[in-house]
Amino acid sequence: METILAWLQPLTELAEDPWAVQMGFAAMLGLAIFALLIALMMVVMGVSDPLRRRLRHLEASAATGTAAGESGIGQWLGPMGERLVPTEEEARSRIARDLRHAGKRSPGAVNLFFGVRLLLMVVPPLLLLMTLPFLRVPLNVGALMLACLAIAGYLLPRYWLVWTIKRRKLLLSRGLPDALDLLVVCSEAGLGLGAAIQRVARDLEVSHLELAEELHLFGLQTRAGMDNKAALRDLEERTGVDDIRGLVTTLLQSMRFGTSIAMTLRLYAVELRDKRTQEAEERAAKISTKMLFPLIFCILPSFMLVTLGPPILGVIAAFANTPLNQ
């Protein structure tokens, strides 16, 4: 009996300490939430069809050319996100198209996107819920913070996707003029369209990696037996860049009417250079208007203070020394 009391004495002392009680409660709450997340993950993994999961793994491995396929976190985020994928074909195809424009072409990219969205919606609010007892905030403020975190977790993947698409389209647009010049040189040297694009893809790997990857994929499709026209249309759909869309349209018209591809590429390269020059001149013309607001609100007040400050102080001092009856 004395041994049991000796073992229980430290626990009794800890129970009398409010801080220790709060820490123990937070630890138990964290373990409970962690166990709940593990249980939910196991339920989702168990409910999903193992055969379909194995097929997705093999498709991802074949698409990426690696044996591992998806990463470890993607193996359980994909089935979780599959439950959130929209049932409407239009919404699902729109998300898939946006992911392709962002450079995410794996078969499970849509499921992984919604899995990451679910993870960001659930995990940060749960972590905040664990720390709320120590923050000592009102209940309504805590609920508002949890709702804001959940909404931010829902919107953050979409903002990331939009930013990635804009950045990738900008990189592809910047590399297109150099690629056109190289294509003109290769075409005039006697290479066909497919061979010229493969050569340009090798030359652009250092300076413009994103465009080189797209052109390299075009070469793989043509070598696999796809027609040049179908491969060009797929290139246009993958990138979503207006300049590449215009190039593909020009090349398809050249193939249709039998004109020289080298001459077509040269004319389009000149047109693209003129377009870039006009865009640069337009941006330069907007500089004076854009600089107006910083000049008025930032530079002009300091300039007025420096130039008119001493005379105003002198006038104030002069009036302060002047008698009122005068």
TrEMBL record:
<feature type="transmembrane region" description="Helical">
    <location>
        <begin position="109"/>
        <end position="135"/>
    </location>
</feature>
<feature type="domain" description="Type II secretion system protein GspF">
    <location>
        <begin position="180"/>
        <end position="308"/>
    </location>
</feature>
<protein>
    <submittedName>
        <fullName>Type II secretion system F family protein</fullName>
    </submittedName>
</protein>
<keyword id="KW-1133">Transmembrane helix</keyword>
<keyword id="KW-0812">Transmembrane</keyword>
<feature type="transmembrane region" description="Helical">
    <location>
        <begin position="292"/>
        <end position="320"/>
    </location>
</feature>
<feature type="transmembrane region" description="Helical">
    <location>
        <begin position="141"/>
        <end position="161"/>
    </location>
</feature>
<keyword id="KW-0472">Membrane</keyword>
<feature type="transmembrane region" description="Helical">
    <location>
        <begin position="20"/>
        <end position="47"/>
    </location>
</feature>
<dbReference type="InterPro" id="IPR018076">
    <property type="entry name" value="T2SS_GspF_dom"/>
</dbReference>
<dbReference type="Pfam" id="PF00482">
    <property type="entry name" value="T2SSF"/>
</dbReference>
<keyword id="KW-1003">Cell membrane</keyword>
